[in-house]
Amino acid sequence: MYKSYSMELAGRTLTVDIGRVAKQANGAALMHYGDTTVLATATASKEPREGIDFFPLSVEYEEKMYAVGKIPGGFNKREGKASEHAILTSRVIDRPMRPLFPKDYRNDVTLVDMVMSVDPECNPEIPAMLGSSLATCISDIPFDGPCATTQIGLINGEYVVNPTLAQKDISDLQLTVASTRDKVIMIEAGANEVPEDQMIEAIYKAHEVNQEIIRFFDQIIAECGKEKHSYESCAVPQELFDAIKEIVPPEEMEVAVFSDDKQTRENNIAQITDKLKEAFAEKEEWLAVLGEAVYQYQKKTVRKMILKDHKRPDGRAITQIRPLAAEVDIIPRVHGSAMFTRGQTQICTITTLAPLAEAQRIDGLDEFETSKRYMHHYNFPSYSVGETKPSRGPGRREIGHGALAERALVPVLPSVEEFPYAIRTVSETFESNGSTSQASICASTMSLMAAGVPIKKPVAGISCGLVTGETDDDYLVLTDIQGLEDFFGDMDFKVAGTHDGITAIQMDIKIHGLTRQIVEEAIARTKQAREYILTEVMEKAIAEPRKTVGEFAPKIIQMMIDPQKIGEVVGQRGKTINAIIDETGVKIDITDDGAVSICGTEQAMMDQAKKYIEIIASDFTEGQILTGKVVSIKDFGAFLEFAPGKEGLVHISKLAKQRVEKVEDVVSLGDVVKVVCMGKDKMGRVSFSIKDVPADAK
Fold first, then answer.
1. pLDDT, tens digit (0-9, with 9 covering 90-100), for 258-315
2. CA 129, CA 14: separation in Å to the nearest integer?
3. For 10-34, what is the mean pLDDT?
4. By the 8 A CB rule, do 409 and 459 touch?
5. Helix H segments across 417-515?
6. Which residues does residue 107 pair with via DSSP β-bridges, in sequence order?
7. Run of H or E residues at 106
8. How many CB atoms lie within 10 A of CB 447?
9. First to last CA, the chain
10. Which residue stretches of 537-574 are H helix?
11. What is the C-alpha to C-alpha distance for residues 546 and 77, in angstroms, rounded to an integer?
């Protein structure tokens, strides 16, 4: 027998089955939201993993194509590596869960959310996020939960709780908020320039819903929860800390970490570590955890300096931004480029434009998301942090940072009608010392403008940090955190937007949640910093989008034809359109509604292709002047080709004003001549004439 629990959530029923399936996992919950079904499981290894100084948590959001009645594409016909959407969802599940596990826990934990059925009315991300929390809570894995997650949309000025897939597609806000019993623990958002006060209101609307879900979870945990298992703590012994402080007093550690140069600081710490290794050479058990001990000593030192002394490691004021620089056109021959530097963080973004046919096709579980016209890719090579390791392609971090920048910039992109291009931006990290994702937003904005993409407004991004004390009121919000403040601090609160509103948020924290006061202060601080970056740096480098695309970018002509004529333009087996492409060297895309896009680099060839399509798609009218090539000669006249597949006959009587004995006396194969359309003859055939061409048309 299994237990089943239900609650009403945003007008739909959420049902949880416990003990029905996956009984060998430490914890499992079969989640039903409408007809959406997700199996959430939590498992932990029996022993800690040796030789690591972090908590080994992995989250897998698995999209099964059978959930939407599809057979996977490709030759293999089975699910392969996780899609970008699956990776991003895994990250959203991970971020609120990770801080709630014990910091000294080293057992491997795996959370798997398997999407088995999708109801378009019920986004599968919701039961997956909730299921991971619940499965862990009822398991014997140490976990300080529950946490709950809610999504908020904004349609026609009204908030929508857990919007459907169709609603998400038209919403001005896509907000995901995770909460513990009394605090917000994770925020992720994409928005169409939503003002700060409205964003805060939406965040706390989600927080209220989360409290209802947590009360529902409490009932389930009380009845089905297992006793938490004991574990081997990996905490650093206090006697080691005491011994370290005798050799390296706090004042010496402060001097070591107080530097605005990352490499200098790392060298200082390396020297201290070598000194301690030498001192503890006889104590093997201490050497095994010395790295973690030095890390924690640094952390305590930095946090004390910031919170108590109001001193940042690089000497900046609490609200001060690192030195900024911006420039465009640093890479020749590409369609657009820009570089943005913030302290020791440096990003170069390159923009590439292409016809809409180059848009990314998406084969996922969301029937409303089938293609992506704008792609932002982020790369983080090892040299950017002075390390050496081979490149293995983008990892979860790179995909996450790229998606964040993409989300920030989509709201300001021109429509397809305004700018009929597929757009790709690639952010290359040249140097990294914190907040590269936000620097990539700044660099990408300038790169798009340099490429001639008519974005509505420039977007800038900035990150705030946090250091907390013993109470909720004992904290300090830091503007523009560098790597060290991110590592040792409690929060990385990234906000991107225009002068007028927010376009993206991503909040990661290492503590058990934030008070509303901290959230509001962080959002206000990022607004202030964003205005400064836009006005004083980015807009001085490039004030507005260039009026035209660059020399090396493809040019696009758009036109409309009668949808009934598409078949004639394409021709049998594509013969006609391929002939136009072969002759002119352009790319041609035609949609079902008759929208034609002609893409090329030479304007003359594009104009020629357009002319051909106009001729093919139009009916011949009396008085129309055309230029044609003689492709066939008969006794009774000459056939001219005006465009690939579009021919007409000039009767021998219409070749010249004088009497013509033989057609070859006037025209030869391959001749290009002007003709005038004489309308239809008695038989309904269209007639053309050379002799009647007006003098001013010759």
1. 887 888 888 999 999 998 888 888 888 888 788 888 888 888 888 888 988 888 988 8
2. 13
3. 97
4. yes
5. 436-450, 483-488
6. 48
7. none
8. 32
9. 92
10. 539-541, 566-570
11. 46
Which residue, chain included where needed, has tokens 């003359």? 604
CA–CA distances in Å: residue 200 to residues 89, 159, 286, 594: 23, 12, 47, 44
Nearest to 497 by CA among 415, 364, 408, 369: 408
Q: Is the omega angle on the peptide bond into residue 249 within 30 degrees of 0, that is, cis?
A: no
Given a contact cutoff of 8 angstroms between Cβ atoms, the answer to whether 515 and 466 are in contact is: no
pTM: 0.87
Q: What are phi and psi of 113, to 5 degrees?
A: -120, 110
Closest CA to 327 of 342, 336, 340: 340
In whole angstroms, give the CA distance from residue 598 to residue 585.
10
Q: How confident is the model at residue 34 (pLDDT cuts 50, 70, 90)?
A: very high
CB 338 within 8 A of CB 446: yes
As given in the structure block, the two tokens for residue 88 are: 């991003």
Strand (E) or helix (H) holding 69: none
Surface-to-core class of residue 565, CB atoms within 10 Å of its CB (0-12 exposed, 13-18 middle, 19+ buried): middle
The residue behind tokens 């798997």 is 112
**Count of other CB atoms within 10 angstroms of residue 531:** 15
The secondary structure of 184-219 as a DSSP string is: EEEEEEEEEEE-HHHHHHHHHHHHHHHHHHHHHHHH
pLDDT at position 414 is 96
Structure tokens at 250: 């706090």
The predicted model gives 98-118 an average pLDDT of 95
The answer to whether 617 touches 565, Cβ cutoff 8 Å, is yes
Highest-pLDDT range among 58-62, 75-79, 293-297 = 58-62
- Give the H/E segment covering residue 524: helix 516-533
Joined tokens for residue 412: 């300001």
3-state secondary structure of 158: strand
Token pair 């021919």: residue: 647
Tell me the CA distances in angstroms from 250 to 167, 300, 304, 467, one per residue in order. Answer: 55, 10, 10, 19
Q: How far apart are CA 135 and CA 90, in angstroms?
A: 15
* Encoded tokens for 546: 């260039």
Q: Which residues contact 300 (CB under 8 A, 6 or more apart)?
A: none
Residue 413: which residues within 8 A CB-CB, separation 6 or more? 374, 419, 423, 448, 453, 455, 456
Q: What amino acid occupies position 234?
A: C
- Please, which residues have CB within 8 angstroms of residue 210's CB and are 6 or more apart in sequence? 147, 148, 149, 150, 177, 178, 179
3-state secondary structure of 344: coil
Q: Write phi, then psi, for 425 (nearest 5 degrees).
A: -115, 140
In total, the chain counts a number of residues equal to: 698
Asked if 491 contacts 188 with a C-beta cutoff of 8 angstroms, the reply is no
- Looking at this protein, which amino acid is placed at residue 337? S
Residue with tokens 């990314």: 360
Phi first, then psi, for residue 430 (nearest 5°) are -85, -35
Domains and CATH numbers, the chain: 3-224 (3.30.230.70), 238-307 (1.10.10), 324-541 (3.30.230.70), 555-617 (3.30.1370.10), 625-697 (2.40.50.140)
CA separation, residue 303 to residues 310, 487, 509, 520 (Å): 10, 11, 15, 22
Cβ atoms of 87 and 36 within 8 Å: the answer is no
With 70 as the cut, is the pLDDT of residue 698 above it?
Answer: no
Tokens of 72: 């996977």
CA dihedral angle for residue 314, residue 318, residue 497, residue 433, rounded to 10 degrees: 20
Instruction: For residue 668, count other CB atoms closer than 10 A to its CB.
Output: 11
- Secondary structure (DSSP) of 652-676: GGGS-SS--S-GGGT--TT-EEEEE
Give the rounded percent of residues in the chain with a pLDDT score beyond 70: 100
Q: Please say whether the beta carbons of 583 and 606 come within 8 A.
A: no
- C-alpha span between 565 and 556 (Å, rounded): 21
